[in-house]
Amino acid sequence: MLTHRDTLRRCASSYGRRIAIVGDAGDEWTYAELDRVTDALACGLAGLGLVPGERVMWLERNCVEYLIAYFATAKAGLVFSPLNYWLRGPEMEGLIDLVQPACLMAGAEYAEMLDGLAMPASVRSRVAVSGKATGWMPWSELLTTAGTIDRVPNDEHAQHEIIFTSGTTGQAKGVCRSQRKRIIDSIMSALAFEVTRNEHMVFFGPQFHIGGGSVPNQALVQGGKATIITFDTDRVGRAIADGATYLIGVPAHYNLLFESGALDGVDTASVRGCYVGGSVATEKLFEGITSHFPGTDLVHGYGSTESGPHTMALRGQEFLDHRGALGLPVPGNEVRVADPLGTDVPEGEVGELLVRSDTVMDHYLNRPDLTEAAFYADGWLRTGDLVSVDADGYYRLAGRAKEMIISGGENIYPKEIEDVLAEHDAIAEVAVIGIPDPLYEERAIAVVRLHAGQAATEDELRAFVRARLAGFKTPREVRFIEEFPRTPVGKIAKDQLSKAHGSVFSA
Q1: In this protein, which residues make up the domain named AMP-dependent synthetase/ligase (predicted)?
Q2: Same domain, 386 and 424
Q3: DSSP conformational letter for 346
Q4: Would you say 359 and 184 are in contact if contact means Cβ atoms under 8 Å apart?
Q5: Is residue 441 part of a domain?
Q6: Residue 191: other Cβ atoms inside 10 A
Q7: What does the alpha-carbon distance between residue 505 and residue 495 come to, in Å, rounded to a whole number?
Q8: Kind of pairing between the strands at 225-228 and 200-203
Q9: Is residue 22 part of a domain?
Q10: 394 and 413, same structural domain?
Q11: Which of 129, 149, 176 delimits the end of a domain?
């Protein structure tokens, strides 16, 4: 059975004394301890009267307890749904009402805020993960409940997680997935990214994102180690000093780490892989990574909350040989590039990426209309991303279908322009959006953040693009910005940027 109950049991049997997870304060759990504590928590949740199929919502900053609760809810047959801790009360209220949880689990700092929200009648239990909160059961008390999980159905197809999309456009949607799909994704992506049983992975992305469970599980399905921290440059530096082999971050994480001095005097020889995701990365960033970690492979992946999330992978020399590509499909993923009618386009032409695999989502929570719109017949997921395939079979992103700019009847893909501008030495980050134009219907503008101490003019940057791309692709304007709005996972928040600059995509 591909369930977390069986996977943890097998890992405890095979790797019992190996360290599985490490917390922010350096606290450690072996595989045997992880299996025992998740059994205990599963019994505690059952002792609260929770029954298979009921839902648990989580709200806390990054911590190992997240993974313990994630696995324990699976063992108890419950559904786990984390909340974004950056949301405001009214935003959370809407998501809680959608999920209709039977139990809330939260850090004490969030308990008072949750107590002030209108709660659905489904909420019967509240558990304080850290600290003390009036009316909330302490986490430690749940771990002392006697019992067994053997009576709980061990169903690999049962829904286990509801993860809300952190996309850059539109309203958040609850993506539902089974244990079986999560475990297949972990195994296949570990193979594609070359994550091994000897990996010491450092994870500091927000756990409420799809990566909160899926990324550490790449190491945990095979006896590796995962350190879970909230991003802090000094804490990352200590993890590297402790022998970390694999880092996962977006460009902003690496830039902050290098600028902080946290690596001064630290032996970085253990780092063999640096995953770079999230947004446009510059050549200067890649040079910085290889300079600070001379023995590392550059790693890139592509996917979405709906698709697995791991759909494409690229690592090492392949990364260098196919700079800017999304990569090749992760094993088990079948992909196509299609026109709006779902018909395959010729090689080299741009179309929507379609994905079919055993890891794509089951459905959107309570939205059969959106679920139907997300799939073609025979299980093909519409990603909404525009790609092309090069002569070597590597997939390249052209942009989001919703972001494509049509100027004077010509299609303009923001990603193509962003990639060119990212090569300019003065540019730290760039985003291209479309705004209304009375003559051409739309026009492309580039919003740019420069490196500290660097200078560039609008005319200079427009000429830089014009020398490399067709004239109609050259941004009509370049606007400079001190700081970009960001999504919870560190991507440039194009929806917020669009509203500020009058984009045609601001709705």
Answers
A1: 9-365
A2: no
A3: P
A4: yes
A5: yes
A6: 16
A7: 7
A8: parallel
A9: no
A10: no
A11: 176
Measured over the CA atoms of residue 375, residue 378, residue 383 and residue 389, the dihedral's sign is negative
**What tens digit of pLDDT does each residue of 435-484 get?**
887 767 688 999 999 999 999 999 999 999 999 887 888 999 999 999 99
In terms of domains, do 214 and 157 share one?
Answer: no
Question: Does residue 258 come out as left (phi exceeding 0), alpha (psi in the -120 to 50 range) or beta?
Answer: alpha
**Token pair 């020889």 in the structure block, residue:** 269
Q: How many CA atoms lie within 13 A of 395 on its CB side?
A: 27
End-to-end CA distance of the chain: give it in Å, rounded: 45
Helix orientation angle between 233-241 and 251-260, rounded to the nearest 10 degrees: 80
What parts of the chain have a pLDDT lower than 50? 167-170, 504-507
Strand partners, 176: 162, 363
Q: Specify the residue for token string 């786990």.
A: 80
Closest CA to 197 of 239, 237, 229, 226: 226
Domain boundary among 123, 146, 176: 176
Q: Which residue has the tokens 């001379």?
A: 294
**Triad 76, 78, 83: Cα angle to 5°:** 130
For residues 337 and 352, the answer to whether their CB atoms sit within 8 Å is yes
List the structure tokens of 210.
Answer: 């799809």
Q: Which of 297, 388, 291, 290 is nearest to 335 (CA)?
A: 388
Contact 45, 76 (CB under 8 A): yes
What CATH number corresponds to the domain at position 491? 3.30.300.30
Establish if 239 belongs to a structural domain.
Answer: yes
Global pTM reads 0.84
Distance from CA of residue 485 to its chain's centroid?
A: 17
- Check whether the bond before 438 is cis (ω within 30° of 0): no
The two tokens of residue 455 are 């200078």
Q: In whole angstroms, what is the distance from residue 335 CA to residue 347 CA? A: 13
CA distance 142 to 173: 31
Q: Is there a single domain that holds both residue 441 and residue 359?
A: no
Burial of 99 (0-12, 13-18, 19+ CB in 10 A): buried
Q: Summarize pLDDT for 113-156 with one digit per residue, the tens.
A: 999 999 999 999 999 999 899 999 999 999 998 888 888 999 99
What gap in Å lies between CA 357 and CA 188, rounded to an integer? 11
